[in-house]
Amino acid sequence: MGRTIIGKVRDGVWQLNEENYVDSWLVTGSNEAVLINSLQYNTDLYDRIRSITDLPLNVLLTHGHGDHAGRSLEVFAHHDVPVYMDPADGFLTGGLSFHPLHEGDLFDLGDTVLETISCRGHTPGSAVFLDREREYLFSGDSVGSGGFWLQLPHSLPLASFREELIKLMKITENMKDLRIYPGHRYQSPVQLNRQYLNDELDLINDLINGKETNKTDVMTAVGQEIVFARAHRGLLLDFLYDPEKLV
Ligand SMILES: [Zn+2]
Questions:
Q1: Res 174: pLDDT
Q2: 29 part of a folded domain
Q3: What predicted TM-score, i.e. pTM, was given to this entire model?
């Protein structure tokens, strides 16, 4: 089981950190609560959450990777807690059943509403959850966590992700105090904010336009050898992408 530390970071927002590696977020309202992602190895997450809140609960997944859609999902299913995920990521999770998640789906917790925004790129079904009122964005790996993986075989081309990023930036353009709560806070020693999204778009534009090129390297991930290149810009400290999949 993964050792998990839970800390309250804001009114109604808890960070659940496993092994200083991956984060989930619990958001509570006056009537309901949601858990955003379910860590990797932890199996007592349901009990830990029930020690914080008795509110009706939904689990929302930003995507289907095993470090965010982990072992505790079976426990939540056993307790009849609905789990939502974009069906486009179903191929990543091997047999678990989900409630389909779509862009625009609203989760009304009472005094807090979370809005689903598709943000496909890291995986074909990646999504983020936006609290417009408080300007909080729960993003999993969808925009990265200071580090960002877009080099995976099932990641979308850079230009496709760029459209999603521009859409997200338009939706949040008046949110001066936007706070990003990503899937791996250890990668982001500073609070990620609008500047992070600006830096990401800036870099991706330069890569697509050929203003920046980087040498390629090879890594093993998801059971195969992957050719990738590495870049960084501002708050985006480490960006891995496939130089053959710019558009
Ligand atoms: Zn991921």
A1: 96
A2: yes
A3: 0.97
